[in-house]
Amino acid sequence: MSASTQEINNLINQEYKQGFVTELETNTFLPGLDEEVIHKLSKIKNEPEFMLEYRLKAFRHWQTMKSPEWAFVNFDPIDYQSISYYSAPKRKEDGPKSLDEIDPQILEAYKKLGIPLDEQERLAGVAVDAVFDSVSVATTFKGKLKDAGVIFCPISEALREHPELIKEYLGSVVPITDNYFAALNAAVFTDGSFVYIPKGVRCPMELSTYFRINAANTGQFERTLIIADEGSHVSYLEGCTAPMRDENQLHAAVVELVAMKDAVIKYSTVQNWYPGDKNGLGGIYNFVTKRADCRGENSKVSWTQVETGSAITWKYPSCVLTGDNSVGEFYSVALTNNYQQADTGTKMIHIGKNTRSTIVSKGISAGKAQNTYRGLVKVLKSAENARNYTQCDSLLVGDQCGAHTFPYIEVKQPSAQVEHEATTSKISEDQLFFCQQRGLSAEDAVSMIVNGFCKEVFKELPMEFAVEAQALLGLSLEGSVG
Amino acid sequence: MLSIKNLHVSVGDKPILKGINLEIKPGEIHAIMGPNGSGKSTLSHILSGKSGYTVTEGSATYQGKDLLEMPPEIRAREGVFLAFQYPVEIPGVSNVYLLKAALNSIRKHHGQSEVDAMDFLTLVKGKVRLLEMDEKFLYRAVNEGFSGGEKKRNEILQMAILEPKLCILDETDSGLDIDALKIVSEGVNSLRSPDRSFVMVTHYQRLLDYIKPDFVHVLANGQIVKSGGAELALELEEKGYSWLEDAEASA
After folding, report:
1. pLDDT tens, A304-314?
2. Between chains, do B105 and A444 touch, taking CB under 8 Å as contact?
3. Is-contact B48 A437, C-beta < 8 A?
4. pTM
5. How close B124 comes to chain A (CA, Å)?
6. What is the ipTM of this complex?
7. N-terminal to C-terminal alpha carbon distance within chain A
8. How far, in whole angstroms, is CA A129 from its chain's centroid?
9. Which domains, ranges and CATH numbers included, belong to chain B?
10. Which among A433, A456, A481 has the least Cβ separation from residue B50?
11. Largest CA distance in chain B
12. Fewer beta carbons under 10 A from the terminal one: N or C of chain A?
């Protein structure tokens, strides 16, 4: 390896800044999973009876399933009996009524992460639901949202206060039988966010959930459900971090989005779970099922994700385009380094007439990492004049990493138009030298080149997140001029 | 400005430059001519700091400092500019962004504050007009989809904005039609000043019709075999390089 390639690698190898541990008294289940644990879980969360049945059904189904092996990732089998399925910071019986009652250590942890929860310092225009291990610890701007008719609360609270909505929609996009990790999540999910936007309402601010895994040997199984009723509009952001630990930790989330007629949902993720150390020790297994149902006519769902963390990422945010003229979009940047593995992409299922989907995927691979795009574009017979455009670009840094593209295309409707473009490139020494010869340091040059590569995706992110995403890749702000 | 003494440079085990001596004073224009494989591009690369070359002997002193010790970005910030023979494309990075980042890194090096966005645009637009470029170029990705002539003009635009002290033009005339060559040459001529020096590396004499050099040096087999004034270029045009190479071989 030449000197400058080594230099590029050093630059991409930045220290994980969110790796601190918060010392807290917690209420944590002993490791292990059986029906008794699920009973206990449902009880501690004071859930309605139908929820317990839902969980048990999912658990029994999960027991009949096998861990999937088709993804282009390698890891040792997970021992599901060695994981604790519930961990929550100790607090008063009925939960904190105001931020004053939240453990200052937790507030401090979020502050360190740049997510202030206290009244004075809140992010302007962004409502935050903070999920710490298995529970939601705070949700900001609840009152203001309520005035607009928007429900934004922890899903455990929604289970108690809006059971009719949960009953109708939970599992309607990702059924418990969908896949191994979705079944596990349905059985043991602990918290997550619930959003309901009523008819015709444009959500007055960005909604955001910040997931933090803190406790050791626990899994985080969060569940998010967003329902956008007819003609409504919502933009939702999701951020994730975890401490540095030598053991792998499992994060198996399920996200369901439902967009009714004329509704628009924009879902953005900046995923920065701990990726493991330079030698591939530790890190989060991020096995996530995310799916949107564009149920109504003219509905639109847009997924944007920036994936820089996790030892293994296994996720395919998808759109089922049921309604006529509905639109699905997927914009993704996935950066893998050292021994990180990512197998990510999307599925666009065209069912309605004139449905359209756009996929833009940017994979950056450095060190000894493997980065895989896996995507499915499926056009059913009913989807007359369906259109899809897919663009997959891979950028390699160094000569020991890999980029792979597995596009699956199934078309049953002759009037459909499906396009697929793919490129693979390397940060060349010539590019690097050119930038240095103009006075930029190698670090700034790599940042600039990577940033340029990801530009099409970054411009889809809400402003607050675009900045964070660029900072995450160690980048200076591209496009600040002109 | 620049003093090169007995410079020997190898690529791997292969010696390319075998004892170059060159003195360049402020305001001078030196043309380095020579046949293919004579070491012209190596000379421009070694001066600008490209990796992959080993200096086995000799020195290059720039403004009293050891040039060869400096990393490439420090050379750039100290005022050494290479106009590339083959400018690279950087997809997704706009020209204007690169220019601003480059200018600010140079200003910072000299203890100056970052340039204000409005002032910067005024500066850039002025230079764009000078080079008869379309302002749209500023917002396109660096060199992406540019024609050969556009890429070279873009190099001169960068030079005009960064205002270097020592400009090295590596085969700037290659791939240019006569109109583009005129525009590029006018751009370079407009940048001539008593405290700015140029090293023009070129295979052909025609560039020298437009940019008149003070000195012409002929490089053959890694050495400067003949130096003279502008008239030497004309002599080369007439006789080719072989008489010099032959002379050197028999010497």
Report:
1. 988 887 788 88
2. yes
3. yes
4. 0.79
5. 11
6. 0.94
7. 38
8. 15
9. 2-250 (3.40.50.300)
10. A433
11. 61
12. N
